[in-house]
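Fresh eyes needed here. Have a critical look at this protein's tokenised backbone.
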Amino acid sequence: MPIITIRLFQQTLINFLNAIIYGGEKILESLTIINPYNPGKVMTLKDSYLDIKAVLFDGSIVVIEMQIARVSVFSKRVIYNLGKADTNQLGIGDNYLILKPAIAVTIIDFIKFEKSENVINHFVFQEKTKKFKYPDTELQLIFI
């Protein structure tokens, strides 16, 4: 792929992620697109491939997947790939403090959340009954 095309793609991806993750603010200025192969560090874990995998300026990992057809196991696959992207950050003896946020951006061509009229649905952990957010937003799910 010619360098100009790669730069244009990266800039388009940066603009897209700024809109989706940062609410349109120009927070993200650069990113590194990395190998979309998402292996399990343990030999018994299922390997998977993502459409795009990138590392943001702050070390956050973004996994981007696109899905046209509604399949029954799709939600589980999104969670699995986000979990693997998160856990693959650490090696033996590494400190949990080096973990960076992992964000799954999933672009779908069907209605996933019947209760929402939003085009973008952004999920983070929250307490079940009182609905307050978990203090760390290390794992995020964003569906478009």
In short: Residues 30-143 form one domain. The chain has a mean pLDDT of 85. The helical segments are 3-21, 74-87. The first strand starts at residue 31 and ends at 34.
